[in-house]
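Example (one chain per record):
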Amino acid sequence: MIKQGLELKQTQKLSPLQLQTIKLIEVPVQELRQRVKTMLEENPVLDDDHPMDSASGGDDDQPKDISIDEIDTDAEDPTPSYNLWVNNHGKDPIPEYNTFSVKESFSQTLEEQLGFRNLSSRRYDIGRFIIGSLDDAGYLRRDVASLVDDIAFRTGIETDEEEVVDILKIIQTFDPAGIGARDLRECLLLQLDRMAPEPDVLNAKTILGGYFDDFANKHFTRIMNRAGLSEEEMKSAVARIIRLNPSPGGQIEDSYKEQAQQIIPDFVLDLEDGQLKLTMPRFNIPELKIKKKYSDLLADSKGSTDPSRREAAAFVKQKIDSAKWFVEALKQRFNTLETTMNAIIDYQRDYFIDGDESNLKPMVLKDIAEITGYDISTISRVVNSKYIETHFGIYPLKYFFSEGLENAEGDEVSTRELKKYITELVEAEDKRRPLTDDQLVEKMSEKGYKVARRTVAKYRDQLGIPKARLRKEL
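Predicted structure:
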């Protein structure tokens, strides 16, 4: 039996201005510049050119552009409001750049060396396929059997594992040394094979060839006993190994490689006479002007019954509304970022005075949300991908947020302070007898930090510090 009924629901829809503001808040300043440029390029009714004045030779009779705020778009409009916002594009416009991948240049360098070998057309094509299968570090991570199948499927060349390995060995003779290795052990051995057979090189090959797992786990005493090496011979061999390149693919010059993105601070914080002064070195929001012909078209179309004129007026109104929403969103973005950053500075004032990490208080997104009155999601968007330039360096805003733990006096200290002390302890330790996690806990307890062993292990991992056994040196 089919039943019909009415159901009343309350839903919340974001306005175009709110959506625009949310998108602009989360982008850094360099991307924001591109957004404004895109708006000026895609909106035909806008003009950001500054008109010449009479003193510089301008003509007073020339039609002048109209300020966007002077346009009245609330007059009679033949088009329903829900048809005035075009939203048929993706989530965010992404600037397109002419970039070239490292892989292309990397492959070309190896293919050039392949061409110098006296290979048949068939073996050359197999070699090219193998080169194309190397990763950016220069390793062949693929299983040889699956490579044989792919060569047959994609190139139509029937081959076998023996032939593929034979050609791979040719590629492994190319520069830089270590290219085409299937794992780290093979990569290091390929580099040692090209060196003169000096004692430290021969001992290094013995260690990697017969005791690689022990070497990776730094069981040096076990290796010395089994390989019959003295401590001095072991030290010399280890010194030779650690100078080898574990990522030979990154050694190739790549003139096409995209340059690292330049960091442009969204905020600048100066210390003047003991006072903190925040500025936002943003570009000025342009005073967008409406081209005279479009403002005249909009004015003349009021009350018109001509369908073509009404359609043109609706188009102009849509574009003007779009520009108004964009400018207002820029203003709201500026106010939101400024309010949030001032709240962070007030919260961490002692730290921003001298940059001493011990003065960095525990702070989470909720703390700043409560101060500013913004949602946590808004604070998260502000913090994301933003940087501040201070008198002691440039930092991402995320740097200033951390959890907290109590010390022996019951005061809350930042986890960043704890991590800094762990780093200092590890840097000062005797590398022949590195501190275990339990010993780190004892040292921190002596300093007044109440930290569990699992917490120390977690922070050590986050800092990229290996376990004590892996930090051991001869």
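Caption: The chain has four domains: 101-175, 177-244, 267-400, 405-471.
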